[in-house]
Amino acid sequence: xxxxxxxxxxxxxxxxxxxxxxxxxxxxxxxxxxxxxxxxxxxxxxxxxxxxxxxxxxxxxxxxxxxxxxxxxxxxxxxxxxxxxxxxxxxxxxxxxxxxxxxxxxxxxxxxxxxxxxxxxxxxxxxxxxxxxxxxxxxxxxxxxxxxxxxxxxxxxxxxxxxxxxxxxxxxxxxxxxxxxxxxxxxxxxxxxxxxxxxxxxxxxx
Length: 206
Prior knowledge:
Elements: H1 3-9, E1 23-32, E2 35-36, E3 39-44, E4 48-56, E5 70-78, E6 84-89, E7 105-106, E8 109-116, E9 119-127, E10 137-145, E11 154-160, E12 173-174, E13 179-180, E14 185-190, E15 198-202
C-alpha cells in the first residue's frame, strides 16, 4: 500500500507488543462525574508483565461525533499505613510510563505496559476533570497478562473509590478506602489459543 493511500484510508496507527503467553481480559466500565465505576485491586505473587488499556467507543465515520475524552491510567502501591502512592502513570508511549507526570491523552486507546513485582497494587482509570458536568463516558478497561489470573500468581478484585478521593485531584499519595462495586462487572476473558472470549459477570477476575 502506498503512503498516499495509507493517509487516505487510515487516521491512526500503532505498534503491536506481545507477551507469551498472553491472557486477555476486557472489562466494561463507565466514568460517571469523573469517577470510574471500578478500579483494580491486584495482588502479584510472582513478577508478571501487564498491559493495561483504556478504549473509548470508536467514533470514526459517525455524524456529529464528539471528541474523545482525555484519559489516563495510574498505578499505585502501598507505602505506609493505609496510604498508597501513585508510582506510575500512562504517557504518550505505552512502554514508557512516567512516575512524576500526570498526562491525560485525548485518544481512542491509551495504554501502560509494565512488569509488576511481588506486592499489592491499585490500578485507577482516570478521566480529566472538567468544570462543566458531562454525560457518563463508557469505556473498556483491558488487561493483558503473561500469567493467568486466579491461578495463584495473580489475583484481581473489582473495587470502587469515593468521588472525593484525593487521587482524583492528582495527589501522589492517597488513602484508597476501597469499597465494593455497586454491581458486578461484566468482563471477557480469552486465554492463549482460544478463538473466542468467554463473557462473565463478577466482583473479581476468574
